[in-house]
Amino acid sequence: MKKNTYILTEGNIKSQLIYLALPLLIGNIFQQFYNLVDTIIVGKYIGENAFAALGIAGSVMNLFIFLIGGCCTGVSIILSTFYGKQDLASYRKESFLALTFGLIFTISLSIISIILLSSILNIINTPEELTMYVTQYLVVIFIGLFVTFLYNLFASQLRSMGNTKYALIFLIISMICNIFLDIIFIKFLNLGIAGAGWATVISQGISAFLCFIYLRKNFSECIISKNDMKYDSELLKKTIYFSSISALHQSSLYIGKILVQGAVNTLGTFGIAAYTATSRIEGIANTFAISGTEAISVFIAQNIGAGNKKRAYDGFKISLILMYSLGIIMALFMYIGANPFIKMLLENANEETVNNGVEYLKIISYFYILCFNGSAFVGYFRGTSILNIPFIGTTLQIIIRVVLSYFFIDSLKLGGVAWATGIGWIAISSFHIYNFFKTKDKVF
Question: How many CB atoms lie within 10 A of CB 379?
Answer without folding.
Answer: 30
